[in-house]
Design goal:
326 residues; alpha+beta; Pdz3 Domain; 8-stranded antiparallel β-sheet; 6-stranded antiparallel β-sheet; 7 helices; 17% helix; globular
Length: 326
């Protein structure tokens, strides 16, 4: 006994077949092609002997770290610095500072808000032994003021390993933390500064004059207390905009205007393979009309449009940046 297939059944079968054959859209852009990272720039310079010879500054007895609490917030500006350790009988101990406290601000004229560990280390280096520091700390959500009197440091602070960060959305650059010798020569605290150790071939900063080994000291007038400051400025910059970079190069200060770009878009798929629905999960969304007659999917890195269950168009970020016209 023959059975006729209705149009709605055929449409549903086509929709299910197309949905099962479609691959999941990528959530992240592909790595940029042509990233140039010279081997001689991978490791920071061995300047430990020079570091030991630098003025030692004052000692507080408080070791601090980033106040960022999750990987999702790694590019956000933290509020305060978190106390990770307090030396027994040190000035910080005498002031009542405890592990887990957030040091928010130094009360002086003008007040100094703290965001990065390098700013605390710079404060230790620049404060004379015996000079009083009035601090605002946060303990379990309650703010209080404390008074800390640093003493002369006998030995240099422990050497801290540097970090490397990559930015592959608008510039195509790899940065490392400056060594303490490099940072202090640039009038920054230990852990501050961002040294250029990688650039993609299409990076607009190449044409702007940025070179390997440049130490970025400030971006748009804001001191670089951590390489993440540069990355945040890049990602939050206006479309087709530019940043003003203050660079230390061979002991000279250079100012450059460095443009921003964006990922090229490229078509990645054209294939021939119920009234309205909308779904959104984190950074991915799917919109469908008329039992899938029109279906649109998107993520920050790619998109797909399907028509009549048979025709599909898709595109997304390429592995290169657009060329900036100057």
């Amino acid at each position: 006994m023959s059975r006729r297939v209705s149009a709605s059944q055929l449409a549903l079968a086509c929709w299910l077949l197309a949905s099962s054959c479609a691959s999941e859209l990528p959530r992240r852009s592909p790595p940029l092609a042509g990233m140039d990272e010279p081997l001689e720039r991978i490791a920071p310079p061995d300047d430990e002997a020079a570091r030991q010879a630098l003025p030692k500054g004052s000692f507080t007895g408080a070791s601090v770290g980033d106040a960022r609490q999750s990987l999702d917030a790694m590019l956000g500006e933290p509020e305060g610095v978190v106390v990770q350790a307090v030396v027994e009988n040190s000035p910080a101990d005498a002031a009542g500072i405890e592990v887990g406290d957030l040091i928010l601000e130094v009360l002086r004229e003008p007040p100094i808000a703290l965001h990065w560990p390098s700013e605390w280390r710079r404060l230790e280096l620049e404060t004379e032994p015996g000079a009083k520091l009035r601090l605002v700390i946060d303990r379990a959500g309650a703010e209080r003021e404390v008074e800390l009197v640093p003493v002369a440091r006998v030995r240099s602070a422990e050497h801290e390993a540097g970090q490397r960060v990559r930015e592959e959305e608008r510039v195509g650059i790899v940065l490392r933390t400056a060594t303490e010798v490099e940072a202090r020569a640039a009038a920054l605290g230990p852990g501050g500064g961002a040294v250029v150790v990688g650039l993609t071939r299409e990076s607009p900063w190449r044409e702007a004059g940025v070179a390997f080994g440049d130490l970025i000291r400030a971006v748009d007038g804001v001191e670089v207390a951590h390489p993440a400051v540069v990355v945040d400025a890049i990602l939050s910059g206006p479309e087709d905009g530019e940043l003003e970079l203050e660079i230390v190069r061979e002991q000279a200060l250079v100012t450059l205007r460095a443009p921003l770009s964006r990922r090229e878009q490229q078509v990645t798929e054209i294939s021939l393979p119920p009234l309205f629905s909308y779904e959104k999960e984190r950074d991915a969304s799917t919109t469908s009309f008329l039992l899938g007659f029109v279906k649109y999917e998107s993520t920050p890195a790619a998109w797909r449009l399907r028509l009549v269950w048979l025709f599909a168009f898709a595109g997304g970020d390429a592995d290169r940046l657009e060329i900036v016209e100057r």
